[in-house]
Amino acid sequence: MGILVADSCWADTAVLLLTALSLLYWYATNTFDHWKKKGVPEVRNKVPFFGSMLDSVTMKKQFSLHFQELYWGLKGHKFGGIFQMKRPMLVMMDPELIKDVMVKNFANFSDNVAIISSKHDPMFAYNIFSMKGEQWKYARSKLAPAFATGKIRNVFPLIMEICDELKKHLKRRIDSNDCEFKAHDLAAEYTTDVVGSCAFGIRCNSLIDPNNQFRKMGKDLMTPESIFRQLQFMIIFMMPKIAEIFRIKLISQQIEDFFRDLIGKAFAYREKHPEFKRNDFINLLMQLKKLGGLEVDETDKKEINRGLEKEASDKGKIEFNETVLTAQAVGFFIDGFETSSLALAFTLHELAMNPAVQEKLREELKKSFEATDGKIDYDNIRSCTYLDNVLHETLRIYSPAGVLQRECTKRYTIPDTNINLEVGDAVVIPVYPMHHDPTYFPSPEVFDPDRFTEEAKKTRPAFTYLPFGEGPRQCIGFRFAQAQVKAALATIVLNFEVKPSKDTEHPVKFDQTNFLLRAKNGLNLKIAPL
Ligand code: HEM
């Protein structure tokens, strides 16, 4: 009798377990027939819960490189399906379709895919990148003037002050025989100081004191060393709903408090001392708070966001209160510091590996700045076409944002098909994979700035090169980014020679644990006097 009872107990437990496992399996895979049902080609390997993302979630492959593999699995199709965990996503493979999504039918795809939507992370929720619909339109139209050419020209002398410090810093290192450096560190110290000065109005001196608090915040934010924080980042980007439930913040409370305090003090000081004038972002934010908008000259007006200013109605109006304004300054830091720093570091690496390119660039810079006695000014630097091509080529090979995403905001039928995308569906633009596709860029791993001459650009389809995105959602800070990276490059190349060191790795090995494309060893290089 006792044995019979025990047997039936085991049987019940086994049935319960099997049912629970079947339910779990169903839950983990119940979206996996989405693309098949729509007749959309898809990548084959799908893993319960992880979808197509197992290798990047487990950090076996760097995110952009993993997407490159998915891209090649869909090559030959105009579009194809993948699964980010359980969420179906449509990868746009055809440049014409990409143009449709980013520009022609922007109204159908006007939002970025939400990473964190809730207000429990206000510093990220009020970043323009996260904002949606009318609210995004309103905020973008108000902030766009801060990044127009005229404003960048005004802030350029502040960038050049940091470049002078960079020059002195490198000279000191050479004088004390300390010529080897990690390009990621040097570039991050420089961009921290530029953003500190141009956005927050403070001198961080990271080049002299790499452990200052501002630099520490940048490291915590962009390259966290703790596995726990890396895991949190992964959850935020891959499983936003779980992040929401557990209230995981992209901008930690400590970082939020630091910036709230910083901005609060800067505002208070300037309100008390109206005679204090500085052409920085804080100054513009204060103007925005006081006047509800920024002064714009006629030239800037033309370039501001392709007519968005006209369209933005008060429907999405938000108050530029202290939280929203602080979020913009923090946004300047998260969106602008690491991306620009990576661009600078990888350009230095490629210049070291390609001495002929470095020499050609030096010749162009010498000629351009002859008239101003070596003084680098904004208009001159913008006219250096080879410098522009060098930076473009770096951003092609090492595009910091390897993949862009858009959310469908209005039903869309894929041209020449009867396949519909519904509101909330996600679309992927495979930037890094296209930049490395030999169909568009022959011998894609070769660093060749001449791919960006006017004639060469005409030989490939539009919308295959997208380091700053495209359309009304294009990177708002691209002019600032280019100004700060080019200023540093010109300063270094005009005064020093960048060389490989005994520890330089080429091709670069990437850090699999980071969403952005970073070198595993930090890019070891050597600086020498000219
Ligand atoms: C080399 C440096 C940079 C790169 C490669 C870069 C790249 C990008 C990319 C690819 C996007 C998405 C565009 C799209 O979806 O079409 C973006 C958006 C954005 N970037 Fe940048 N960025 C850089 C520097 C900066 C800087 C310096 C700032 C600010 C000072 C900035 C602020 C933003 C903002 C606010 C957005 C969101 C725009 C919106 O959704 O309306 N970025 N960036």
From TrEMBL:
| Any single Pfam family the record assigns to this protein | p450
* Main location group: endoplasmic reticulum
Where found, per UniProt?
Endoplasmic reticulum membrane; Microsome membrane
- State if Iron is listed as a keyword: yes
| Gene Ontology MF: a single term | oxidoreductase activity, acting on paired donors, with incorporation or reduction of molecular oxygen
Entry similarity comment: Belongs to the cytochrome P450 family.
What protein is this chain from?
Answer: Cytochrome P450
Protein species of origin:
Cloeon dipterum
